[in-house]
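Quick one:
INPUT:
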């Protein structure tokens, strides 16, 4: 399976332009502790619960992306993303059960401020902007988790033996997951190529950087679980 190229196209430009913001996200202490197997269990459980709530709103964003699309190919692609999340939810629920967390607990949990801020930002961008704006708000999550996951899977420093988080890390090497990320990246870069002016790039950068900061705050929320 061909891996996504995180350095090409407009995404690569946005990622590079984000500089330290992007590195703070993809190399966060939460991620590094996952790789080392040293993350406190309460932190991971908080993350799993909030990630469930996050995915509910992320699915709404993909439905909105379909509504923002004007041709059947783009609509199908948005619905594929929505279906992927719908298919992921039972897996997320089953995995959470291995940590002693039921779906009822997750669905009934109070949303953290960080979850509200991030998901509502994405939806607000989608409602007020166009399809490219919404994809820009979504892509730090779509591409960022893939970049993190693939890096951890391939890193000689990642501990797999005896690491309670090893299965979570390994999920990011599945062919279906990697293919979905690559499809989204390619579509994003193709759409973004239609607008090359500096003013529009600054507009997209503002969305991208805000979403990236909110991703970092999401990790922080898990790390500071009480």
């Amino acid at each position: 399976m061909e891996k996504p190229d995180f350095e090409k196209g407009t995404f690569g430009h946005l990622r590079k332009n984000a500089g330290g913001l992007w590195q703070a996200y993809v190399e966060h202490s939460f991620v590094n502790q996952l790789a080392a197997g040293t993350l406190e269990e309460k932190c991971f459980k908080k993350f799993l619960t909030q990630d469930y709530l996050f995915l509910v709103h992320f699915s709404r964003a993909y439905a909105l992306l379909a509504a923002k699309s004007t041709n059947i190919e783009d609509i199908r692609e948005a619905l594929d993303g929505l279906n992927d999340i719908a298919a992921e939810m039972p897996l997320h629920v089953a995995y959470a059960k291995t940590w002693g967390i039921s779906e009822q607990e997750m669905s009934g949990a109070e949303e953290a401020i960080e979850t509200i801020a991030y998901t509502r930002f994405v939806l607000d961008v989608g409602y007020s902007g166009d399809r490219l704006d919404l994809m820009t708000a979504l892509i730090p999550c779509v591409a960022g988790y893939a970049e993190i996951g693939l890096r951890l899977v391939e890193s000689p420093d990642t501990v797999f033996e005896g690491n309670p988080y090893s299965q979570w890390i390994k999920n990011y090497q599945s062919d279906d997951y990697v293919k979905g990320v690559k499809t989204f990246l390619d579509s994003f870069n193709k759409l973004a190529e239609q607008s090359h002016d500096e003013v529009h790039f600054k507009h997209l950068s503002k969305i991208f950087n805000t979403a990236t900061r909110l991703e970092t705050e999401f990790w922080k929320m898990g790390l500071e679980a009480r």
